[in-house]
Amino acid sequence: QVQLVESGGGLVQAGGSLRLSCVASGSIFNLHGLAWYREAPGQQRELVASISSGGSTNYADSVKGRFTISRDNAKNTVYLQMNSLTPEDSAVYYCNAELTTYSGSYYPDFWGQGTQVTVSS
User: Fold this and answer.
1) Which end of the chain has fewer CB within 10 Å, C or N?
2) In whole angstroms, what is the distance from residue 88 CA to residue 85 CA?
3) Distance CA 106, CA 120 (A)
C-alpha cells in the first residue's frame, strides 16, 4: 500500500517560515516527479512547486524567491521550505507524486492527505 504523508504545517506569523515534508512509503519502486500543490478555501488547487527525478525545479510566480523545493531520494521524501510567508500563502498544502510500484503499477498523480498552513497577519 503506497502512502504519501505530509507534515510540518501549522500556524505562523507573517514573515515567518515553515518547512513541509512529505514521505512516500510502501512498495515504491521509483519516485519520478514530485510536487507541492495548495488549495485555499473557495479557490482551485494550484501548483506551488515541482521537482523532477533529475532535480530540475519549477515554481509558481507567487512563491519564486521565497519557497524552495528539494528531495531526498534515499528517504523517499520531498520538502518545501517556505520563507517570508504572507497570509495569502494560507492553504492546505498537498504532496503529489508520479511513481511506480514494485508490482508494476504506475501512478501519474498520487496525492497525500494535505497539511494546513495558516499565516496570520
Assistant:
1) N
2) 8
3) 39
